[in-house]
Write a structure and sequence with these properties.
The chain is built from eleven helices and eight strands. By secondary structure, it is of the alpha+beta class. It is elongated and about 140 Å long. The strands form two sheets. Strands 1-2-3-4-6-7 form a six-stranded antiparallel sheet, with no helix packed on it. A two-stranded antiparallel sheet has the order 5-8. It folds into two domains: about 25-55 and about 140-295 and about 355-465, Outer membrane efflux proteins (OEP) (Up-down Bundle); about 60-135 and about 310-350, no CATH class. A hairpin with a 6-residue loop joins strand 2 (about 75-85) and strand 3. Its main location: membrane.
């Protein structure tokens, strides 16, 4: 067991104890291209591509059409090219066309005939009722942009959850190493005291049963030490996942120094973290902002559902002129106006869509209110916990001072022979437990503050990057 102690102590020691593996170094590695962060970025790119796809509905296009008769009485051939560009306003479309024909056409195909130079035309189509204010294409464009914004807010939530778990793993590691360091000191002191007790037994100063009792307690400490060693190794594995770098394991194993009495003593908290710890739920909270964008999307759907109840009335205007020689009937400029009118008598589907969308809006309003209330209640609970955690930490620090004084006095009495091992061991364990409680209380203060930051969704990637760039202005507890 002593060999295991020496080995693991060497594993945790560093040549320069001042170079502790601090939170800044850890977060620098965590924020550097971790797969979970990269996956969030890739998802953001997908929503960006959806915007581009929706915008593509208004891309211009060029159509070509031609035909010729290879057999039969008539030998007419015709070719046309049409350029069209959809517009958002009034569901409009502007177009221009050039077509040319040659040969003879039957009477029922005279619309293909042109002068020798062909026919050029320009025109516009637009909606006057259904489709005028909005349509499926415009709704799809607005929806794609709203979903992109909504995902950006959801990404902040996902990032905040990730960094919360990562920093919590770091605090767990700090606590486990601090516990390991303290139990290590107890074991080392016990081993040294064991040698002294053996000499006193040999000299007849104390009974052998006291040595056996002491060795039993020492074995308990060594078992606790082994459990602490396992806990440290488990927390190292957690850090390895978040750091996403095997090369950094040495940094973890080499810090903090095993000679440090309390590893949490050197634990510092960025002022940037403390500045975002508050109990109020902001309307800009990513979860609420995402719901707001979702509401905007539903209102876009409602507009489309209302428009679908209107009759469809489209108008098309076109100017065309033939160029070259040919029949006199084709030589003048033509102006055409066309109307398309459609009235749906049974509008069950359109009414159902409108009704469903209204129910979705009502449900989302209630979900948003419930979400805001839930976040607010959890924040208030965490603020209460933080207040008591700080008070408990202050009390535990006082308890450490008193327990150390009692142990030191008991140790002097034991050395003078006016006390026994059992009382000394009790005082030593009490002092050890007091230090452990103070250490845990201090870490719990960090945990409560971290939970508040997570509830406020402040631990997003941009915030962490800005905190790292500021090189961590720290605040001691």
């Amino acid at each position: 067991m002593y060999k295991s102690l020496a080995f693991f102590a060497a594993l945790l020691s560093v040549s320069n104890p001042s170079k502790a593996f601090n939170l800044h170094e850890y977060l620098t590695l965590v924020a550097n291209n971790h797969p979970e962060i990269l996956a969030i970025d890739a998802t953001t790119g997908q929503y960006g591509a959806d915007i581009q796809y929706a915008d593509g509905a208004y891309d211009a296009k060029l159509d070509h059409n031609s035909f010729s008769r290879v057999t039969g009485y008539y030998d007419g051939l015709q070719a046309s090219q049409k350029f069209s560009k959809p517009l958002e306003a009034y569901n409009a479309e502007i177009f221009s066309e050039y077509r040319i024909s040659h040969g003879d056409f039957p009477v029922y195909e005279q619309e293909y005939a042109t002068l020798s130079g062909g026919e050029a035309s320009v025109g516009v189509k637009l909606s006057l009722l259904q489709g005028r204010d909005t349509d499926k294409k415009r709704t799809a464009m607005a929806s794609a942009r709203l979903k992109y914004k909504m995902w950006n807010e959801e990404a902040k939530l996902a990032q905040s959850e990730f960094y919360y778990a990562a920093i919590l793993a770091y605090l767990d590691w700090i606590e486990s190493v601090s516990y390991f360091n303290k139990i290590q000191q107890l074991v080392e002191v016990g081993i040294n005291r064991q040698e002294g007790m053996k000499r006193r037994v040999a000299e007849g100063d104390i009974a052998e049963i006291e040595l056996l009792e002491f060795e039993t307690r020492l074995l308990e400490r060594q078992s606790t030490f082994l459990s602490a060693e396992r806990n440290v190794q488990a927390n190292i594995q957690k850090l390895r996942y978040y750091m996403h770098s095997n090369a950094s394991v040495d940094d973890i194993q080499n810090a903090p120094s095993h000679n440090t009495t309390d590893s949490t003593t050197g634990m510092v908290w960025p002022n940037a973290f403390k500045s975002v710890i508050h109990g109020g739920v902001s309307t800009s909270h990513p979860a609420l902002a995402a719901k707001a964008y979702e509401m905007q999307e539903l209102k876009q759907k409602m507009r489309l559902a209302k428009v679908a109840l209107l009759p469809k009335l489209d108008v098309e205007a076109k100017l065309a002129r033939d160029i070259g020689s040919g029949p006199t009937s084709l030589q003048d400029t033509e102006a055409k106006i066309g109307l398309y009118f459609s009235v749906p008598f049974e509008r069950s589907q359109a009414k159902a869509k409108k009704s469903r969308t209204q129910f979705e809006i009502n449900a989302l309003e209630q979900k948003t209110n419930a979400l805001q209330g839930s976040i607010d209640a959890k924040l208030k609970e965490r603020l209460i916990n933080l207040t008591y955690a700080k008070r408990l930490h202050d009390m535990q620090k006082k308890q450490v001072v008193l327990s150390r004084k009692l142990f030191e006095q008991e140790q002097r009495q034991f050395e003078f022979g006016s006390s026994d091992f059992f009382m000394l061991n009790t005082r030593e364990v009490d002092a050890f437990q007091a230090e452990l409680k103070a250490m845990t209380a201090r870490i719990n203060v960090f945990r409560e503050e971290l939970a508040i930051m997570k509830l406020n969704a402040k631990l997003n990637h941009q915030f962490i990057q800005n905190t790292l760039l500021s090189k961590f202005t720290f605040s001691e507890k």
